[in-house]
Amino acid sequence: MIKRTLGQLATMIKVVNDVTKFQDIEIAGVSFDTRLINPGTLFVPLKGDANDGHKYVDTAFEKGAAAVLWQKDVPNPPEHAPVLIVEDTLSALQDLAHSYRKQTSAKVIAITGSNGKTTTKDIVASVFSENYKVHKTDGNFNNHIGLPLTILAMEETTEIAILEMGMSGKGEISLLTRIAQPDAAIITNIGEAHLQDLGSRDAIANAKLEIIEGLPKNGLLIYPGNEPLLVKKISNLKQFNTCTFGETSENDIYAVDITIGEDGSSFVVPGLSDEPFFLSIAGKHNIMNALAAILAAKEFLISPSSIQAGLKSVKLSNMRMEWHDGIKGTRILNDAYNASPTAMRAVISMVENMLEDRAKIVVLGDMLELGDKEVEFHEQIGEGLDPSKIKYVFTYGSLAKNIASGARLHFPEERIFEFEDKEKLINVLKEKIEGNELILFKASRGVKLEEVVNTMVIKNEPKNIY
After folding, report:
1. Which of 14, 308, 342, 346 could form a disulfide with 191 if both were Cys (CB 3.0 to 4.6 A apart)?
2. In angstroms, rounded to a whole number, what is the distance separating the alpha carbons of residues 150 and 190?
3. What is the dihedral of CA 331, 337, 342, 347, to 10 degrees?
4. CA distance readout (Å), 296 to 4, 19, 229, 326
5. Distance between CA 161 and CA 393 in Å, rounded?
6. Burial classification of residue 50, based on how many CB atoms lie within 10 Å of its CB (0-12 exposed, 13-18 middle, 19 or more buried)
């Protein structure tokens, strides 16, 4: 984590008061949450629409904060206390992270995309950890507050920082990449998430491509070569080195001899190694994420054997491809952290095509932020379900009922159940389970489908590796 004196901080961000008498005080780490204050922390009070962190400055000092930032337009800053007055505390937090990033020797890999950002981050981190000291985004700290905090939590001896960049609208990736100044950037894909805010996939592609604004000349941009929206836009970016991954041989890297099971996926990368790689996460879509990680690893001279070791030991963030042992001998796949049509189709296809003696049940919830076509997108998910591979379809939510409508085109009515009450869903699901089924849970985070998952599992600890 960042460790600096207040005098040094005053050279890293614009401070409008005189901090001379406090200049030798040292801070260690930064937080905007008083619950996370440790002795020596710099507390950053943020002003929001509903709350103002300045109200908690006294609490921060009581818990051991070494110093605080204070926004200039907020009256009555503490007297005779180590306070750094700034024009805007959020901007100061972002400027501090940018300055700290430039003071370290870490190489930064930035990751964005409509789906798979967090999984790709976890894969890249696992692979790079075989050769380097790695720091990565924790959880979903991938926005205008979380990314600066991630950078400031990085040890100064970090060699590789892997930073996830999320967005909900235009301009957000631009801000994040300018703070982080990445050496390499990965775009995982262009999906339908954020259509509600951006209006079209083309606009989403433009928003994701903002990531190049922080890349240096000759920086590396890794992207899916089978995505026409990106291929067209990136073809004229001659100032960057570009590499593509995908399903076909036209890409710089692609996979063949793919085998997918519950315990993971194996595949061969032509031209890299004759030996198959094993990724400890199931699903063809995750092989695509692994290919992006392999391209980044090649750029940093990581050997095929180290790549293999890293892929075998990937640990995913919570509620992403979590395997649980469930009631009545079932296996439960909780992938309910987020959902979009692309991501939902991918995980359903994976489950449908798993070769095992288990009947399969899908529990699918609302996909949010899809804009005007949200009903159509849900219906298409239902239409795409294979009745020869899926025993029962359960839906939860006012939008997900359209998945049920789509499924009715080729599923018998007695195999489809739609709910807007979780207790009723749980009761019927438990009634229909005969034993040994594989049950997939997938929905947007706001649906909180894990509340249903928790009633079905018999072990507390999730498993990413079966």
Report:
1. 342
2. 25
3. -10
4. 32, 43, 22, 37
5. 41
6. exposed
Mode of pairing for the β-strands spanning 331-334 and 360-365: unpaired
The token pair at 338 is: 């987020």
Sheet strands side by side (includes 264-268): 256-261, 264-268, 277-279
Please tell me whether 119 is known to bind a ligand: yes
- Write the pLDDT tens digit of every residue in 415-446: 999 999 999 999 999 999 998 999 999 999 88
Determine if residue 225 is labeled as part of a ligand binding site.
no
pLDDT in tens, 7-17: 999 999 999 99
Alpha-carbon distances, residue 255 vs 47, 86, 271 (angstroms): 48, 51, 10
pLDDT in tens, 95-127: 999 999 999 999 999 999 988 888 999 999 999
From residue 375, alpha-carbon distances to 10, 368, 382 in Å are: 52, 11, 11
What is the rounded CA–CA span in Å between residue 318 and residue 316?
6
**CA terminus-to-terminus distance, the chain:** 34
- Look at the chain and count its residues: 466
- pLDDT tens by residue, 142-196: 999 999 999 999 999 999 999 999 887 889 999 999 999 999 999 998 876 656 6
Domains of the chain (ranges plus CATH)? 3-87 (3.40.1390.10), 104-312 (3.40.1190.10), 322-453 (3.90.190.20)
Say whether 11 counts as a known binding-site residue. Answer: no
Q: Is 118 annotated as a binding residue?
A: yes
> CA-CA distance, 328 to 276, in Å (whole number)?
35
Rounded to whole angstroms, the Cα distance separating 129 from 94 reads: 27
Is 113 known to sit in a ligand binding site?
yes
